[in-house]
Amino acid sequence: MKIDLVSWESEGLRCPDMRIDLMAGGAPTKVALIQMPNGTGKTTTLKMLTATLTGVATSWKPEMIQEMRRPEDQRDRGRFRVDLRADGKPITFELQLDFEESRVQYR
């Protein structure tokens, strides 16, 4: 089975609200370099990619969920979405964080 990382997007989290699309000319790029200044969300992005693809966030304690919230952001929810292709077929995983209830949900 061939799996390609197509894109990811974040909203309401410590990392910036963004969408990264790795499709160039209709095919996923072979190499992608993401650069950001210190303190702007590289580690959070990596944690969210890992959590979204592995399911590990179901064991996060409330403190860990709250750490994913951007300081001074008043939104009560955040989400991270990953789009893949498995043998050319689209698959999407989404991790939703409820900061008010300190809960996560996968979609």
> Treating each run of at least 4 consecutive H or I residues as one helix, how many helices?
2
The general outline is: globular
Strand order of the largest sheet: 2-1-5-6-7
Poorly predicted ranges: none
Helix content: 10-25%
Kindly report how far apart the N and C termini lie: 22 Å
What is the typical, i.e. mean, pLDDT? 92
Number of strands: 7
Based on helices, strands and strand pairing, what is the structural class? alpha+beta
N-to-C series of helices and strands: EEEEHHEEE
Q: What Rg do the Cα atoms give? A: 14 Å
Largest sheet, if any? Answer: 5 strands, antiparallel
**Proportion of residues in β-strands:** 35-45%
What do you see in this structure?
The protein is of the alpha+beta class and 107 residues long. The chain is built from 2 helices and 7 strands. Strand 5 (77-86) and strand 6 form a beta hairpin.
Attribute tags:
five-stranded antiparallel β-sheet; 18% helix; 107 residues; alpha+beta; globular
Q: Short description, anyone?
A:
By secondary structure, the chain is α+β, with helices and mostly antiparallel strands. It contains 2 helices and 7 strands, in the order ββββααβββ. The radius of gyration is 14 Å and the shape is globular.
